Amino acid sequence: KTNALLSILKLQPVVPVLVIDDVATAVPLARALVAGGLKAIEITLRTPAALDAIRAVANEVEGAVPGAGTILNARQYEEAVDAGSRFIVSPGTTLEILEAARKSRVPLLPGAATASEVMALREEGYTVMKFFPAEQAGGAAYLKSLSSPLAGSVFCPTGGITAQNAGDYLSLPNVICVGGSWVAPKAMVEAGDWDGITRLAMEACKLAR
Ligand code: 3PG
Fold first, then answer.
1. Which member of 130, 186, 190, 203 is catalytic?
2. C-alpha span between 94 and 96 (Å, rounded)
3. DSSP secondary structure, 107-139, as one string
């Protein structure tokens, strides 16, 4: 399952993090992102439309690899998998989430923000984690200082990342990709500016790893 997760996260330097209010926007938005080169797409379970959005993207958007974010418990994990999620993201880690992940065929990207949290996940066999909330927890400098003592753990930092600071993270040895919402701004989604979103995705794709 780690290899499946790694191959999804290696598809692109930036995983879009989406909050979908209107399920009707999910398919055109995902198509716009895929057209710009961003295939792995995280849809957060923060809105009532989220599960239907994942289902629509899984069924209708060729080339997309939909995942579910903001997964807080086992029930959400199972519902997200049933909807067609190919990866699951949680902001932190609980025993319940770890147990749900053990039982599931779909891999978990669990959240961690401190050395102790990373160590606890390593004891559970995890080498790939989400560093959240990245900017607020200490940013690229903080994550860099975990790279030597906690060598072997790699991260997808998320939270406060933008086109301007993404490069600081992507240049670190322990970063595999970053996550962020900046490639799908709410105003552009509401305006149906799919070409504009494809352009943002293309720029994000060019960020060096
Ligand atoms: C989130 O959970 O909201 C993600 O970390 C995205 O954060 P961002 O909106 O700061 O990119």
1. 130
2. 5
3. -EE-EE-SHHHHHHHHHTT--EEEETTHHHHTH
Q: Which one is the CATH code of 2-112+162-167+177-205: 3.40.50.2000, 3.40.50.261, 3.20.20.70, 3.40.50.740?
A: 3.20.20.70
How confident is the model over 2-36, as pLDDT tens digits?
899 999 999 999 999 999 999 999 999 999 999 99
Largest CA distance in the chain: 46
Domain ranges of the chain: 2-112+162-167+177-205
Whether 42 is catalytic: yes
- Residue type at position 98: L
Question: Is 181 touching ligand 1 by the criterion CB < 6 Å?
Answer: yes
Centre of ligand 1 from the C-alpha of residue 62, in Å:
25
CB-side neighbour CA atoms (13 Å) of 71: 33
- Predicted confidence (pLDDT) per residue in 86-126, tens digit: 999 999 999 999 999 999 999 999 999 999 999 999 999 99
Question: What ipTM goes with this model?
Answer: 0.89
